[in-house]
Amino acid sequence: KAGVTQTPRYLIKTRGQQVTLSCSPISGHRSVSWYQQTPGQGLQFLFEYFSETQRNKGNFPGRFSGRQFSNSRSEMNVSTLELGDSALYLCASSAGPKETQYFGPGTRLLVL
Amino acid sequence: GENVEQHPSTLSVQEGDSAVIKCTYSDSASNYFPWYKQELGKGPQLIIDIRSNVGEKKDQRIAVTLNKTAKHFSLHITETQPEDSAVYFCAASDPGGGNKLTFGTGTQLKVEL
Lengths: 112, 113
Description:
heterodimer; A: mainly beta; 7-stranded mixed β-sheet; 4-stranded antiparallel β-sheet; 11 strands; globular; B: globular
């Protein structure tokens, strides 16, 4: 079974731009969660989608948004990028609530 | 919300020795505690997890113990090998209905020859 895939793997943007990251979960998994990882703040939960509905949201500004499609693939969008948005963005998929989460390799975003 | 503390932040052991990493959590309603290993340039990889109805779980050289009363759980790695060198994260699930995990700050484990 293929693992979680994330595209692109690396991205460079400038302040004020917007970015869209994509995540394809493990086949059959319906839950997708997004996390931001930085050296200073560690791993922080962004949001979770299950069956195309946002089920949970972390403490991030409204510039961070996401969605999930009927095939369970998910995208997250960050608008009006700030330098502090530079991070590794990780996607995790699971079969359902309270099930094991499997992480993808992440998208490394650098904001200049 | 949930708060997870993890110690130590760095750990250096000799090959063949044991390594222990400890975490505490704040919300007594949390019931799922996974451990992840993250190597440079990769996403976190699940190595073992435990649910609150179990006190201990073992998988070959790796074991996790959970003390619900004290609200702490620990990762034990025996017979460490150089390939065990990585950053290890503990996490606790949000007591709500979703899959939100709150992570500890990580432990950089170095296994020296």
